[in-house]
Amino acid sequence: MIVAMQEKATEEQIDAVIDAMEEAGVDVHRTTGAMQTILAGVGPTAGLDLTKFEMLPGVLHVHRISAPYKLAGRAWRPEGTVVEFPNQATIGGQAIAMIAGPCAIENREQIFEIAACVKAAGGKFLRGGAFKPRTSPYSFQGLGIDGLKVMREAACAHGLATVSEVMEIAQIEPMLPYVDCFQVGARNMQNFNLLRELGQVRKPVLLKRGIAATVEELLLSSEYILSGGNYDVILCERGIRTYETATRNTMDIAAIPVLKKLSHLPVVGDPSHGTGRRDMVAPMAKAAVAAGADALLIEVHPNADKAVSDAAQTLYLEPFEKLVRELRVLAEAVGRTM
Ligand code: PEP
Ligand code: MN
């Protein structure tokens, strides 16, 4: 259930409503927007008489949430979520964020060179995989924590925030000092135990859509994190598997406006995994911005053809810089900044 408070509701009135909701056996999640406070009640609300809550002082209106996801739905935060990071970086809101870096952190020199490029292009986020979910067990599996240490150093040197994939619960704690945002990869979108644990963490989570997941399944996966009290979730469209083989995945551009409509969570477009092809990254990055994406995730490498993973979809540094310049113009055309 959603309880929207009046603009002028006092803290005492809000507390009284929270108490009444908790007494009725529901978990209360509060959001305080610029205009009003909205309380989401999650739990056994089916048998509740909502008029009882409507009568409480300071309440504007009460309604049931018909969608299966409760906290991810836009009704709870109509203004949209802006996720905040160190160094004044944000994802959500007016500005479009650039998250870029190699598929995998390979060595110190590589990640420092990329960090300098991302910074020079105006990006605020450095991404790099240290725990890699590879299709083959014989492929490079990532440098682990040693890789994250050098990525953190490179990010610090350039005032960037870091994003890296977590594959299992046991990695969360050791990763904490080195990452500003946990990425959950497509293959783990329905690793519900991992999602629940990330709900207990107070660091943002970038949740990628699974290769065969519907939009609703993605939103329900985000609900596992949100219901734990971690409200800083960013959704990512990274392509799904279809009958089409011309591209590695089929980037579902329409999912971006769909997610923006259904949910308050920021949405990232990932044209690198979405296409698997270097020559298709720029057009699909532009399409994602035109479709309303709040950020882009792009794989870059100074020696892209020699990248140890995802080489075919990785941009060289110069085309990446050119793409960012073009995206700035496009962002302005759709009323955003970059
Ligand atoms: C990645 O970001 O490098 C990655 C492995 O992504 P995905 O989970 O979308 O395949
Ligand atoms: Mn990759």
Describe this protein's structure.
The structure is a single chain. With 338 residues, this protein is an alpha/beta fold. The chain folds into two domains: 2-63, Phospho-2-dehydro-3-deoxyheptonate aldolase, domain 1 (Alpha-Beta Plaits), CATH 3.30.70; 83-333, Alpha-Beta Barrel (TIM Barrel). Helix content is 33%, strand content 17%. The protein contains eleven helices and 14 strands. The chain has helices at 11-23, 51-54, 108-120, 145-157, 169-175, 192-198, 215-226, 255-262, 271-275, 278-290, 317-333; strands spanning 2-5, 27-32, 37-42, 59-63, 83-84, 90-91, 97-101, 125-127, 161-165, 181-184, 205-208, 233-237, 267-269, 295-299. The strands form three sheets. The protein has an eight-stranded parallel β-barrel with strand order 7-8-9-10-11-12-13-14, surrounded by five helices. Helix 8 (255-262) links the parallel strand 12 (233-237) and strand 13 (267-269). Helix 3 packs parallel to helix 4 (145-157), helix 6 (192-198) crosses helix 7 and helix 10 (278-290) runs parallel beside helix 11. The protein is elongated. 47% of the residues are buried. Bound molecules: phosphoenolpyruvate and manganese (II) ion. Manganese (II) ion is lined by residues 103, 273, 299, 309-310. Phosphoenolpyruvate is lined by residues 103, 129, 133, 185-187, 208, 238, 273.
